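User: Teach me something about this protein's shape.
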Amino acid sequence: MGTIVNGANGGFKGKAGSVIGSSWKSINYIKGLYKKRSKPASELQMMQQEKFRTLMRFLLPINMFLKIGFGRKNTERLTPINAAFQFNLKQAITGTYPAYSLDYSKISISDGGLYGGGTVSVAHAAGELTFTWDPTANDTFETFGDDMVFVLAYHPEKDEFMSSPAPSTRASGEISFIISEHLQIGIVHTWMFLTNRSKTRVSKSVYLGEVLLN
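Assistant: First, the predicted structure itself:
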């Protein structure tokens, strides 16, 4: 049985006949009950489903980054992870069905107008990854020394992500973290992006490339 919200003219929650009422971010929705598919999915539908699985499998473990990097995108209609999915869908998936893969160089962890880290790089030595950037603040571009810097590394062979225990700041110019022992062989893909202190402004993420660990 459905429950009426905000009086007789409002939305409702729950099941009422052949429809279900729900709401998200103060927006009321009505949808029909799920009907069991009577015919197999078309090839186009299977292609879309496989693209969805391929990309979401990568994005879900880094949802905490996406909440920052895409947290200001169309917030009335999309969650950050869905905004990131839509942003990356056309540019990051490569290959042909059913063997889709990801072009890591085209994956974006964030998107925004904050000025980034200028000349950036990443290096590996003695079991550590070290990310560097230009520490200079710029009044013209409204960047400050306490802007926050987030770094991310992905080990595709192990299907694991790595990052620093806490973000650094623009003024620091670099950050390092120790790679877990079981991840110290192979390659990792690396990204970086910045936000202001309040996380209301964010830069575009930068793909820093592959790093050979062994």
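Now, about its shape. The two ends are 61 Å apart (CA to CA). The domain at 112-214 is CATH 2.60.40.10 (Immunoglobulin-like). If you'd like, I can walk through any region in more detail.
User: That's plenty for now, thanks!
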